[in-house]
Amino acid sequence: MKIIMLGAPGAGKGTQAKKIAEKYQIPHISTGDIFRANIKNGTELGKKAKTYMDQGLLVPDELVVDLVVDRVGQEDCTKGYVLDGFPRTIPQAEALDKALAELGQKMDFAVDVEVPDENIINRMSGRRACVGCGATYHLVYAPTKMENVCDNCGGELVLRDDDKPETVKKRLDVYHEQTQPLIEYYTNSGILKTVDGTADIGDVFAEIVGILGA
Ligand code: ADP
Ligand code: ADP
Ligand code: ZN
Questions:
Q1: Is 10's C-beta closer than 6 angstroms to any atom of ligand 1?
Q2: Which ligand is in closest contact with the Cα of 204?
Q3: Predicted pLDDT at 214
Q4: Which segments of 115-172 are extended strands (E)?
Q5: What CATH number matches the domain at 2-115+174-212, 3.90.226.10, 3.30.870.10, 3.40.50.300, 1.20.210.10?
Q6: What pairing do the DSSP bridges indicate for beta strands 2-6 and 109-114?
Q7: Which atom of ligand 2 is nearest to the CA of 5?
Q8: Residues of the chain above pLDDT 70, percent
Q9: Helix, strand, or coil (residue 75)
Q10: pLDDT tens-place string over residues 151-181
């Protein structure tokens, strides 16, 4: 099963993608996580990506597309995967469709997690990321067992630089301008499914499972 997660920054794509990956035993591929791992390891790609990410801008398509196309061609992706944070532009979506067509494959679902802009800033200010493993929490809605300590690895939790309110505003503008057109793109290709992202994490997941099938 091949799934794309769509939605504004902070809509809950990553949270749901992780749960989907666990339930359906498929890889969770997050381009944001890949970039953050590259930044942490000081790679050339990480250095380039960081200059865009810090400003709330998208990393240029040419730095993202080959990376994802390579990744979905790997052995562990033969049964499917869930893409989180990719595609984010029409050219990325077209490049993905083309690459899949060459492999004789196609995407099954694009799940749009809908959350109004007014909820996003609040959600992002409470998001915390583990410096050790990248796991995501929320101070109120997805708290750790021990305050400021990652449940997975014991690492410290931080507010991501790009989750500060000024940068979140910019990212929302970028989302509406460059990513939202994908909703029409996947409506036209017949695979768009919309879920209410304002519900509790478990209820959103139940709605998604209803779509994907148990
Ligand atoms: P969020 O979880 O808030 O949606 P991500 O972790 O997916 O954010 O992405 C963080 C940043 O990484 C984005 O703001 C953007 O700069 C960059 N990025 C991630 N995926 C892509 C992509 N497919 N195309 C361009 N830039 C991307
Ligand atoms: P995205 O990947 O779309 O940027 P995340 O999955 O990182 O979004 O979620 C953003 C923040 O909101 C995180 O702190 C997460 O724990 C929290 N969150 C995710 N889904 C919900 C929900 N349904 N209700 C409340 N908070 C949520
Ligand atoms: Zn951790």
A1: yes
A2: 2
A3: 82
A4: 127-130, 136-138, 157-158
A5: 3.40.50.300
A6: parallel
A7: 3
A8: 100
A9: helix
A10: 999 999 999 999 999 999 999 999 999 999 9
